[in-house]
Every structure is written in C-alpha cells, then in structure tokens.
Design brief:
Immunoglobulin-like, 658 residues, 3 domains, alpha+beta, eight-stranded mixed beta sheet, 38 strands
Length: 658
C-alpha cells in the first residue's frame, strides 16, 4: 500500500464558538514569595534578596584558588572577582553565605576590614571608583556550607559499591554563593575563569576549560589548574573531586577536520568500572558530531567536552565538563545538548528556563531520531507529550513571582520546563513544515546569541526572521498559555462522497481558550489507499471538506505524534437511506423549524434524535405520524445530525441550522 503525502490544506468551512478569555491569574497552588525591604536590599527586575549594589559592575573574570576534599564540603582559599564599574561605585557588593567566614577582603590592593553582611550579601564601603574603572576584589574565606537537597551548592557522598568518596558542586540556580564569592546575575557572564583546586595527591579535580597544569604543592597535595577563555555564567562554574581515572576519547566534527575534539572523562578509579562505561561514553562522540551538524560546531571546541562522575541525582551541564550520575543515552544527550542551549546561549532570566531545559530535552529527542531510529524517537516524544498533559494547567514560561530560593522545583518542573518545553519545540517544527528552515532557526539562534543570554521572545523573533512566519499566537498559546487542547472529531462522506470533518476543540485550562494549530490526519479510503492531510484549527469549532473522488472509511489523528492534544471523541457518521423508515427533511437550511417527512405510511413508532456536530444530544423524541415538525429557532448556527430508528432500522442524515 502506498502512502501519499498530501500537502494541501483542506477547504475550510468555519463555525465559530466564542469563548471568554479569563484574564485572572491563577496561582495553581504555589506559595507566594513575601518580599522584605531594608536599606540595602531593593526590588530589582531580577531578585529582591540581592543587593542593588551587585548591579553596579560587570564581571570580566573569576579566579578561584581553593582547597577541596573528597570527604567533606569544607572549602578554604581565595577568590578574585575582576570587574568593571558601569556606574560610580562607593559600595562594592558580592554574595557569600554567612557559613563562609571571611578572612580578608582586598580590593585593588587595599585591605578593607569595614564591611557588613546582610543575609548572603556582603557590602564593602570603598573609596569611590569612577564609572569605567577596573576593579579586582580578592576575598579570602573558609567554611563548610550546609548539605542536603538537590539544589545545595556543595555535596559530599560515596559510591558504596566502589568505595569512592566524592564531593561536587551544583550552583544552579541560586547556590554558587554557598562555596565562592560571586555575583549571581544570569545576564552578566564572565569573559573567562581560572579555576585552581588543591586536593590530596590521591584525588583528581575536574572543572571547566582545559587542565593547564597539575602542580605539586608539597605535603602530598596537588593543585589542578583549569582555565577557560569562553564566556561563562556563574552557575556553570564547578568542581568535582574524587579518586578518579582519566578516560579520554575524541570526536571528529566535520567542521574541525582534520582536527579532533577532546572528550575527557573523570571516572571512579576502578579498572572494571572504567571498562564498563566505555561503550556508553563512546556515544558522546556520535552525539557531538550530530549536534555540531544540527546546531553549529560545538561552542567550546578550542577547549574540550567532558564528564565528571558523581553521586548527583541526574546530571548538571557544567560548561565543558558535565557532572554525571550515570552515562545513559538520555542523560548524555541531554547534558551535551546543554552546551549549546544553556551554556553557549543561556536563559536571560529563570522565567525563560525553556531556553535551557526545553531545548536540552529536545536534543535528547533529536539524538534518538538521528542515531537510534524512528521507534526510539517516537517513544521519547510520546512519553514527553503524555507527561506534559498529565495535569491540566501550568505554563512553560514561569511568572517572575515564582522565581525565588525554595521554589526551585517550579523552575525545573519536569512536566513543564522539560517535557512540555520539548513538545512545543516539536510542534514548532511541525508548524514550520520545513526541516531545513527549522534547523536554520536553531543555528541562527546559536550564532546570534553566542556567548550571551536570550529569552523565549528572542527565540521567537529568530524563528520569525528565518521563516518569515508569524509565531505571536503560537507563543501566546504554548509558551505563555496554560494547558492543552481536547478534541472531539466527527467525520462523514456526503451523497457525492465528499469527505467532511468536524473538529470541536475545548481546552484543559480556561487560561487559554483556543489553540490555533496545525493538525495531521491519516485518511484510509475504500480502495485500500491512504493519505495524510493537514488542517489549521482556527476556532473552537471548524468544519473541513475535501473531494478525494473516493470514500474515507477510517481516520487516525496525529499519526506521527507531532502535536500535543487529547482526543476525547472520534466518530464516523454514515448517512443511510434504507426502507422501511426512509424520510426526507426540509427546509434546508432550517431557519425556525425543520419538517421530517416519512415516505413509508406505516404507523410504527419511530425514535428521533438530534445531535450537534460535536456529539452533543440536542433533542430526543418519538412519533407514529407521517410527518414531524421540529422547532429549531433556538439552535445555534451549525451542522446537525438527525437519526431516526424504528427498533430494527436506523437512518442518519445531516442538516444545517441558521
């Protein structure tokens, strides 16, 4: 059987059902964040718990030189924040939790002992720096940050099977301040970072960029010196320390030929364990080549990509060296995808976490599509779609009032930020109907915002520029809107074998009353052939017609799983003209009344049922007379079906009411 892909849009006959847009805001049960005010803390467009003075300078680089261990979260040493004043500065501010004791603060060579601490904000009165001044603030400190919870800045655990201790960091979204002095501002990436970690000689330390040296500092201690010269956001700076073995492989992106790209893996130092991970890690090289083709060359190709094994609950996309709980295909693909979406181009606000997590999740889908095949890709996207529809509301975009410490799981909602985020990218690809253009959108986005930050609106504008299409409504529904569409479909062939389809859409959340969307149908004909047709849902109820020259006998909604929808009803109406209860109707269209005329004069009892095109029962009655008058003055304009049964035979016809 040959499948014919029909690229036409069905002829549209529209019946509009008006719906009210509910403008009231639903909190969906989330806690409200009670903001407090004092002299030093102000409400910014970012976060109210941060000092206003943090935004007086632009970070140029971070330099860390700290001692770390595989048995404790305790750290000590110094950090340098190099920056440039963007306004005159008389108070220098940085973030560091109170559990970290400050030993001294030296700014541009001068020792400052007069400073205050307000929560995690450290405020240092300084001799005024003029706008444009270069500032170098060196902070010596020591302390043990609190442990517990996924979003803790530093954690320590052990692999009981391998008897390996490990300490690792996870600064996203608000926890870098737990282990080093920092400015936590997504839109202020450092231009570079030198990250030096001293540990016992039995350990290795993994971090960002290139390992430029390992220095023996005496007393059985080694200093691992990592340097990166790419822009980096604060939360992507990391370390992981353990008794590691270095297992390195190489990828060969076509854009780098004949050069290769280092993929450096720090694995628990056990020969059998390392051997067991090699096959999984090898897939990283295949994914690196694929993503470099689909998204642009790996953004940090002059340095490396790598993994540090840890007892983390999942993975974290630390720039150029992800921290990994395991090396499953899904986790490796997701964290590698982040190197483009999250690290090279970072969400400009936590409200736009979709830029990171939605696209990293879709990277996993693409890895399955291109490397594992159709079945694996289908299983992945169907799982994501089903999870996205497991609750009725919630938007992919996160309103600012939900962004605060303690509410991290709303930011990193698996259902919304990850799975619905990936599902709407898949739908956008379907809306574009041109894979070459779709991947050009991804590449253009990477090029235009390389090394910087972007919002969902920035991605929308990129998609519109590349494709020439208008996605305002798409983003209003799927990115900012809530829920998903629910459908009832009725289809039939009329007397001339013209295919007719009624599509009635309701939605799972009153926040979004309509999803204007492209939807696929596979139609099977009475001669054994089939085709795929697409139509654009533009109102809550649409009717579509198309003459195929043959009869449709079966229909499948969204056969290739492109779109997010719940099908609540799918029915085929077959019009029949069979004795002994054959009847005619008129006038058509029915204005105020509809007459039913029975051509067989038998006085048998006949049941009469009127249903709307969406399947709603409008009228039920019975008669023994040769004619029956139905009052239609209160019927809404649209198509209806009339079904008459005498207990043995049933006839169905359609009519239009105005």
């Amino acid at each position: 059987m040959k499948r014919i892909i029909a690229l036409f849009i069905l002829t549209l006959l529209t019946t509009v059902i008006y719906a009210q847009w509910n403008k009231s805001h639903s909190t969906e049960g989330y806690c409200s964040h009670l903001k407090s005010i004092n002299n030093n803390i102000v409400f910014t467009t970012d976060y109210s718990w941060q000092s206003k003075f943090l935004f007086d300078y632009d970070v140029t680089s971070y330099m860390l030189d700290i001692v770390v261990s595989d048995t404790t979260t305790y750290v000590e040493g110094n950090a340098i924040i190099n920056c440039r004043a963007i306004v005159p500065i008389d108070t220098f501010a940085f973030e560091l939790i109170i559990e970290q004791n400050i030993d001294s603060i030296i700014i541009n060579g001068n020792l400052y002992t007069n400073y205050s601490r307000d929560g995690a904000n450290v405020l240092v009165p300084v001799v005024e720096f003029s706008q444009g001044s270069d500032i170098s603030a060196q902070i010596y400190y020591h302390g043990q940050p609190p442990e517990g919870g996924f979003f803790t800045g530093v954690n320590n655990d052990s692999s009981t099977a391998l008897h390996k201790n490990v300490t690792w960091t996870l600064s996203e979204p608000f926890s870098a301040k737990q282990w080093f002095p920092v400015k936590q501002d997504l839109q202020d990436k450092a231009d570079s970072a030198w990250l030096f970690f001293t540990t016992s000689s039995g350990n290795m330390v993994g971090s960002e960029g290139l390992l430029t040296d390992v220095v023996d500092v005496g007393n059985n201690m080694l200093r691992y010196e990592w340097k990166t010269n790419y822009p980096i956001d604060y939360y992507l700076i990391s370390f992981a320390v353990a008794d590691y073995a270095d297992y390195s492989i190489y990828a060969h992106p076509t854009q780098m030929a004949p050069d290769s790209l280092l993929i450096q893996n720090f694995l628990y130092n056990n020969p059998a364990h390392v051997e067991s991970k090699k096959a999984s890690i090898a897939k990283t090289a295949d994914m690196m080549v694929l993503f470099s083709d689909l998204f642009t060359l790996y953004p940090f190709y002059e340095e490396k990509y790598g993994h540090c094994e840890a007892q983390i609950g999942g993975g974290m996309e630390h720039q150029t060296m992800s921290t990994m709980a395991n090396f499953s295909f899904h986790l490796v693909a997701h964290e590698l995808g982040h190197m483009w979406f999250g690290d090279n181009v970072t969400c400009a606000t936590w409200s736009d976490i979709w830029i990171n997590e939605g696209f990293a999740t879709y990277s996993d889908y693409l890895a399955n599509e291109f490397l594992n095949g159709e079945e694996a890709a289908t299983n992945f996207i169907v799982g994501a779609q089903q999870d996205a529809m497991s609750a009725d509301a919630g938007s992919v975009y996160i309103p600012e009032e939900y962004i605060f410490p303690g509410n991290e799981w709303r930011i990193f909602s698996g259902r919304l930020s990850y799975n619905k985020g990936a599902a709407i990218i898949h739908m956008l690809r379907h809306e574009i109907q041109n894979d070459e253009k779709f991947f050009e959108v991804l590449k253009t986005f990477q090029i235009n915002f390389a090394g910087g930050t972007a919002t969902g609106e920035d991605f929308r504008n990129t998609a519109e520029t590349v494709t020439g299409m208008d996605f305002e409504q798409f983003f209003g529904q799927w990115y900012y809107g809530h829920g998903f569409p629910r459908y009832n479909f009725v289809y039939w062939n009329d007397d001339q074998n013209i295919f007719n389809l009624s599509s009635t859409q309701t939605t799972s959340s009153e926040q979004t009353p309509i999803f204007n969307m492209l939807l696929d149908f596979r139609l099977v004909f009475d001669d054994g052939t089939d085709t795929i047709v697409r139509f654009k849902q533009t109102d809550n109820q649409n009717v579509f017609s198309k003459d195929f020259g043959k009869k449709v006998i079966h229909m499948v909604v969204d056969p290739n799983n492109w779109t997010l929808e719940e099908v609540r009803g799918l029915s085929y109406v077959k019009e029949t003209n069979v004795s002994p209860i054959y009847f005619t109707i008129g006038p058509v269209p029915a204005l105020e009344k509809l007459n039913i005329y029975f051509l067989n004069p038998d006085t048998v009892l006949r049941d009469i049922k009127i249903t709307s095109i969406s399947g709603q029962i409008i009228f039920i009655g019975e008669t023994k007379a040769s004619s029956f008058e139905l009052n239609t003055i209160d019927f809404e304009s649209g198509i209806y079906f009339i079904t008459v049964s005498d207990g043995q035979n049933t006839i169905t016809k359609k009519f239009i009411a105005h």
